[in-house]
Write a structure and sequence with these properties.
alpha/beta, 11 helices, 14 strands
Length: about 325
């Protein structure tokens, strides 16, 4: 099963200020703020939902095709993804813009001042999926993740016109989309991904009920935080899968992306929907135990030991063959 992952490609530049922002603000001068903070640490991390999901799938050996836009500064990031099993040949490289970047400073009270530079991400709207499909010999599923909004719309419309199954996954972009855009992006999706809060927001913005939305998609996949995930389909029994036990809760950033990576890898292997959700939850657990979205290491034997403990021998026996064990 050949899966393309569309979505943002970005780097995070995270800094730490040992003081308090509040101590630097003068109440009667807020209309003319001019501040510079001497920071102690700079942590540069790879990110972007498209790249995060593709990285996780690459770790599981399912060779996803990453579709997105980056700048000429993407070479090192590309090499990292290539080494971890991601096909990056369909990433568009901008001639004028840098790769998207999030720059954020956090103070001692965990307050943050940040900026997001869209950069090359805005050129995702120029990517044609037919070119991608022709290069790899066809696509069986396209995940349409958070990206340039016009790019998300174009990819969805192209999937419909070319009868390519697609998964709708708005995540961060749902806040800026109106009801009509969301209705267009989800109607006819093979999968609709969201967390619980986004689920309510989708219903509120579209004006469609839960039942109406369920009737417009193949499966509705709702992540439930520490409670795992729920998968619904009209006329079928709801599937609920819990999370494995965490060894530590270090950083929740990228956990949803990791779930999608594991779930999509399960689909690529052809396992059941329940089993795919279990793989997704196990991979998500590795990410929450790690600082950074692509800093975890998937060691196959320990992964399967924990998977077996969480989901039983039958589930582990079915999955381990796909990991070469």
């Amino acid at each position: 099963m050949r899966i393309a992952v569309t979505g943002s490609i970005a780097t995070d530049h995270l800094m730490t200020f040992p003081g308090r922002f509040a101590d630097q603000l003068v109440a009667d001068q807020l209309h003319t703020v001019s501040l510079s903070f001497l920071v102690d640490n700079l942590d540069v991390r790879r990110g972007g939902v498209g790249a995060n999901i593709a990285f996780g799938m690459g770790q599981l050996g399912t060779n996803p095709v990453l579709v997105g836009a980056a700048g000429s500064d993407f070479d090192e990031y590309r090499a990292w993804l290539d080494r971890h099993g991601v096909d990056t040949e369909s990433v568009r490289i901008s001639e004028t813009l840098h790769t998207a970047r999030f720059v954020c400073t956090t103070d001692a009270d965990h307050n943050q001042i940040g900026s997001f530079y869209t950069g090359a991400m805005s050129e995702a709207r120029l990517i044609e999926l037919k070119t991608v499909a022709d290069r790899v010999g066809g696509l069986d599923l396209v995940l349409i993740g958070a990206d340039d909004p016009e790019g998300m719309m174009r990819h969805t419309e192209e999937c419909r016109s070319r009868a390519i199954p697609f998964a709708a996954d708005f995540s961060q972009q749902i806040a800026r989309m109106d009801g009509e855009e969301i209705r267009l992006l989800l109607d006819g999706a093979t999968f609709l991904f969201s967390n619980e809060y986004e689920k309510g927001l989708i219903e509120s913005k579209t004006g469609w009920t839960d039942a109406e939305i369920l009737g417009k998609v193949g499966h509705r996949v709702t992540t439930l935080g520490s409670r795992g995930v729920r998968i619904e389909k009209v006329g079928e029994e709801t599937i609920e899968v819990g999370c494995p036990e965490e060894q530590a809760k270090v950083d929740p950033t990228g956990v949803g992306d990791a779930f999608r990576a594991g779930f999509l890898s399960g689909l690529a292997w052809g396992v059941s929907m329940e089993r795919a959700a279990q793989i997704g939850c196990m991979l998500a657990t590795l990410v929450i135990e790690t600082l950074g979205t692509q800093e975890y290491e998937l060691r196959r034997a320990p992964f399967m030991d924990r998977f077996r403990k969480a989901y039983g021998d039958d589930a582990a026996t079915e999955v381990e063959s796909y990991l070469g064990l």
